[in-house]
Amino acid sequence: AAFASVLAIDYGSDWIKASLMKPGVPFDVLLNKDSKRKIQASVGWKKTDQLFGSDAYSIVYPTGRLERDHIVDALELGGLRIFALFNDGTAVAVNYAMTRAFPAPEYHVIYDAGASSVRATVVQFSSEGAGKGKAADTQITVAGVGYNREIGGTEMDRRLRDILVNEFNAKHKKDIRADRLLRE
């Protein structure tokens, strides 16, 4: 059997996270130069230098089918072989199923509330093929995926802020949004 290393990258709208799986090492989270797990999802150019992460000028990028195709093209141009691209709900389901048995089918909803979107993945876990000394094979079926690219953690933070400001203003009969120091 051939052994290979696998680089897993989570491209979020605000943060990028990466991990490495290789023979002899179960799971290694990659850190940036500041020993942090998350890297700001931004890219920029300063004269002839290309910058990314906290060194970059922030450019938010939406991702869809076309953007995923571009990621695959870029990785192939870089000489890397792609095993698969799959959504984060499926990745969580695979991770969850690795250490569990499912004698009866189970349905789970996996939520991912990122900075700019919210996704829900409905998965079914079941086991098949057990018998005569053979362990059951776990089957994962993605029953559905829903998402909203209009809301996310950042928008929820803004709405909560507005609720708290309005309550404060009503209680104290003062508009704190008019305070110059709070706007800076």
UniProtKB/TrEMBL annotation:
Transmembrane segments: none annotated. Keywords: ATP-binding, Chaperone, Nucleotide-binding. The keyword Electron transport does not apply. InterPro entries: ATPase_NBD, Hsp_70_fam. The keyword Nucleotide-binding applies. GO terms for molecular function: ATP binding; ATP-dependent protein folding chaperone. One of its GO terms (biological process) is endoplasmic reticulum unfolded protein response. GO terms for cellular component: endoplasmic reticulum chaperone complex. This is Actin-like ATPase domain-containing protein. It comes from Athelia psychrophila.
